[in-house]
Automatic annotation (TrEMBL):
<feature type="binding site">
    <location>
        <begin position="183"/>
        <end position="185"/>
    </location>
    <ligand>
        <name>substrate</name>
    </ligand>
</feature>
<keyword id="KW-0456">Lyase</keyword>
<keyword id="KW-0408">Iron</keyword>
<feature type="binding site">
    <location>
        <position position="413"/>
    </location>
    <ligand>
        <name>[4Fe-4S] cluster</name>
    </ligand>
</feature>
<feature type="binding site">
    <location>
        <position position="290"/>
    </location>
    <ligand>
        <name>substrate</name>
    </ligand>
</feature>
<comment type="function">
    <text>Catalyzes the synthesis of the hydroxymethylpyrimidine phosphate (HMP-P) moiety of thiamine from aminoimidazole ribotide (AIR) in a radical S-adenosyl-L-methionine (SAM)-dependent reaction.</text>
</comment>
<keyword id="KW-0004">4Fe-4S</keyword>
<keyword id="KW-0784">Thiamine biosynthesis</keyword>
<feature type="binding site">
    <location>
        <position position="161"/>
    </location>
    <ligand>
        <name>substrate</name>
    </ligand>
</feature>
<keyword id="KW-0479">Metal-binding</keyword>
<dbReference type="Pfam" id="PF01964">
    <property type="entry name" value="ThiC_Rad_SAM"/>
</dbReference>
<dbReference type="InterPro" id="IPR038521">
    <property type="entry name" value="ThiC/Bza_core_dom"/>
</dbReference>
<feature type="binding site">
    <location>
        <position position="96"/>
    </location>
    <ligand>
        <name>substrate</name>
    </ligand>
</feature>
<feature type="binding site">
    <location>
        <position position="267"/>
    </location>
    <ligand>
        <name>Zn(2+)</name>
    </ligand>
</feature>
<feature type="binding site">
    <location>
        <begin position="224"/>
        <end position="227"/>
    </location>
    <ligand>
        <name>substrate</name>
    </ligand>
</feature>
<comment type="pathway">
    <text>Cofactor biosynthesis; thiamine diphosphate biosynthesis.</text>
</comment>
<dbReference type="InterPro" id="IPR037509">
    <property type="entry name" value="ThiC"/>
</dbReference>
Amino acid sequence: MKTQMLYAKEGIFTKEMQIVAQKEQVSQDFLLENIACGKIIIPANINHKSLDPNGIGFGLRTKVNVNLGVSNDCIDYSEEMKKVKLAHKFGIEAIMDLSNYGKTSHFRDELITFSKAMIGTVPVYDAVGFLEKDLKQIEAKDFLDVVYHHAKSGVDFMTIHAGINSRAVKVFKEGKRLTNIVSRGGSVLYAWMMMKQAENPFFEYYDDLLEICLKYDVTLSLGDALRPGSTHDSTDASQITELIELSLLTQRAWEAGVQVMIEGPGHMAINEIEANMQLEKRLCKGAPFYVLGPLVTDIGAGYDHISGAIGGAVAAASGADILCYVTPAEHLRLPNLDDVRDGIVATKIAAHAGDIAKLPKERMRDDDMSKARQDIDWEKMFKLAIDGEKAKKMFNERRPDDLNSCSMCGKMCAMNTINQISKGEDVNLI
C-alpha cells in the first residue's frame, strides 16, 4: 500500500487529492508538487471509509481540530459523541480522541465509522488501559503495539512524542522552567524514561513506527512534548531543542514516504508567535504546522478560548496550517457541550482571520457579509455568520419593530439612513 505522499511522488492523482483540489480550488500540479515534498498532507488512513478528505498545509485554508474523549473522572461516551456531532455541524476538519481511561477502542471504532472528519489519537494515552500494565511494567515495543492497533482501526493521524529523546531531555534538565513539562503524553514518556533509564521508545524504534504508518497511510503528528506551558517558558532551549529533533525525524519520515505535520506551542507571548511560525517552517522545510492556541496570556482561566483565538489568528496569518481549538474550560475541567461550541467558534474565527491575511480569495465571504449588512438582509447575515444560529437567536431576543434596523440603533441605523438618502427619500428619526 502507498501513502498519499508516495502516490504524489509518482505523479498519481488520487481520489483524495481530487476532493481536496476541488474544495481548495487549487490545481492538480500544485497539489502533487506540494504533497510530494511534504508541504501539504492529506491524512487519510486506508481503513477510514467514512472520511471526507481535507488537505493541510501550504496554500490551503487553515483547518481546525476539536479535542474530545473521556477521563477517569468523566466517563460518558454518549456525551463525547454529541461533541462529535457538534463538530460536524460546524464543518470541523479534524477530531482527536484523547480518551485516557479504560478500554477506549469501542468508542474509537464508533468514532471512525461515523466521522467524516479526519481522526487523530495519542497512542501513549491508551497504553496503560490497552496493555493492562502499569507504566513501569510497559516495555519499549509495547508502545508500538498500541500504535499498530490504532493504525489498523483507521486512525488518520497520531501524535507521537518522538522528539523528547535523551538529547532533548539533557537540555530540559539543565534548564529552569516555571512549568516543566505540561504535555500529557510528554510527561508520561519522560516518567517512563526516567524509571526505566532508557531511551524514548518512539525515538529508538522510529523505523518500526514508520513501517506501521506506511502500511495504513497514517500521518505522523510529531508531538511537542516540551512545548511551553507558560509564557515564561516560551521559545526556550527545551522547546527549540525538541523542534530541531523533530526536523530530523521529519526528514527520515519523508525519505520513507510517510506524511508528517509538526505540533507547536502552547503558551506564547504574542510578539513571539510570528518568529516561531517562521522557525518551524525553516527548520522542518515547510512541513505543516499544527498549533495549540497559542495562548497569549496565562491568566485567562475561564476564557482561554479567547486567549487561544488571539494567538491562533496571529499564528494562522504567520503560516500555521491547523489550529487545535481551546475551550473556556481549558486548565479547569473536561469541557461540556457549551464549552465545545464556544471553543469551535472562537477557533474558526481565528482560522478565518488568518486566512484573510494569507489567502485573498477567503475575503469573499466577508465581502458578502458586508453587502448583506448594507442591504440589511438579516437572513443572509445569519447564513454567512460562522455561528448563524446564535446570531439569529440574539437578534430575536430583542427583535425590533422595524426590521430595517436592530434594537441597538433603532431609527438611527447608519445603513438604513444612507440607503434612504441614496434612494432620494427623506430620513425620519422620530
